[in-house]
## 1
Amino acid sequence: MQTVFILNGPNLNLLGKRQPEIYGRETLADVEAGCRALAGELGFDIRFAQSNAEHQIIDWIHEAREAAAGIIINPGAFTHTSVAILDALNAFEGPVLEVHISNVHKRESFRHHSYVSLRADGVIAGFGVEGYVLATRRMATLILEGRSA
Ligand code: CA2
C-alpha cells in the first residue's frame, strides 16, 4: 500500500491548545485521525508527523524520496523563511500539497510569501483544519494520475 507523508512544522503541536480564534479547537491528533480515516477509505496509508526543528522536516522529506507517494506539508513559519525545505522538496519527485490552516493572505505581509509554493502542486489556505482532509482527497487524485502517466 502506498504511503503519503503529512508533515507539520513548528508550533503546530499547540493546535487546539492556544489561539483557537485563529487555528480552531481541534488538536493535531484530531487532524491526524481525520486524515487517516479518509486515506484508509481512499486506499492509502499516511505517516503523520510534526517537528519544531527544520532539520527534522528536511530529513523526513529525504526519507519520502524512497518511502512516500506524495507529501502534504504545513511548514508553519518555515513556509516564509526556509529555502532549505524548498530545496529538499525540489529533490522529491511525487506530488506536493501545501496546507495552511489560516488564510495567510489575510494576515501580516510577511506571511504572504511562501518558498514552499514554488514547488507545491496545490495550496490550501484558510479552510481551517478541514484543509488537511481536502488535501488528502486531492492527493488520491494526484497519485492516481501519476500511476496512469
Ligand atoms: O496557517 C497556518 O497553518 C500556518 O502555517 C501556521 C503557522 C504560521 O506561522 C503560518 O504563517 C501559517 C503557525 C503555526 C502555529 O500554530 C499554533 C497553533 C495553535 C496555537 C499556537 C500556534
## 2
Amino acid sequence: MSRHYAVFGHPVSHSLSPRIHAAFGKQAGIAIEYSAIDVEPSGFDAALQDFAARGGAGANVTLPLKEAAYALCSDTTERARRAGAVNTLIRNGDAWHGDNTDGVGLVRDLTERQGLDLRARRTLLLGAGGAARGVAPALLDAGIGDLFIVNRTPARADALADMLGQPGRVHVRYLDDLRNLGEFDLVLNATTAARDGGSFPTLPRSLLGRRSAAVSLSYGEAAIPFLAWARAQGAHESIDGLGMLVEQAAESFARWHGTRPDTDRIYGELRAESARLVTAD
Ligand code: ATR
C-alpha cells in the first residue's frame, strides 16, 4: 500500500521535494505518494489535521511554517529543540513527532560533497529566521570557530544566540557593524531577501577573502545575487543550497522509511538542470 507524505509551505509549488522523494522511493523500492500542499500559517494546523485524517504518515515543512510546526508537535528531537524549528514531521499514533534535518543536511553537503573542513572557521551567519535556526546548532557541532549572527531585526539574532547558549563563541552584531568585523572563513546567507524580492543591504567587500567560502541556503534564482556578489569578491567557494536540500531530504527519508538513500544521482540530475536554467537566463 502506498503511504502518504507531503511538503507543506507557502509558496510551495516550486518545491523539488516531491521529485527528490519520488526518486528515493524508486531507488529503495518503496511505493510512496508525496505531494506539495500550499498553506498559509493561519491554516496550517487544520491542513495538517486533514492530512493526518487522510492517512498522512509524514511531512516536510518549509517556509514560512517551520517554527509553527515546532509548536504543533507533541514531542521533538533534541536537534529540533535546539533549532526551535521543525522541517520533518513523523506521525506517531495520534500525534506528530518533530525533527529538524536541515543542519545535518547542510553539514553533510559542505563536508562530504563540497569537501570543506569546517573546523575552526570564523563564521558569519546572515539571518535569524527558521532556516538560520535550523543550521546554527549543527555548524557549532561541526566545530566551526566563532559564530557571528547578523539580522535585520536584531531581537531575532539575540533570541537565536540565547538559544544557542555559547556566549564566548556566539556573537550578535548589527547590520551597521558588518564593515568593522573583518574577514570570515565562512559566510552563510540564511535570509530570504532575494526570494522576497527585497534587496539585501549592501555587504562590504571586507567580509570575504581569497580563502573564504560563501554559502547560500537557497537554490535557483534566489541564490544568485548573493553568490554572484561572493564570486565578484573572489571567494574561494560559492555554494548554493541544492546539496543541502537533497541531503536534508535523505535524512527525512531515513527517519520515515528506515533506510538512507544514495543522494548522488538525484543531486547530479538537479545540478545539471539548474546549470541549464542559469545559463538560459
Ligand atoms: P526562514 O525560515 O527561511 O529563515 P523567515 O523565518 O521568514 O524564513 O526568516 C527570513 C530571514 O530573512 C530573516 O532573518 C529576515 O530578517 P528579519 O528577521 O529582520 O525579518 C531575513 N530577511 C528577509 N528579507 C530581508 C531583507 N530584505 N533584508 C534583510 N533581511 C531580510
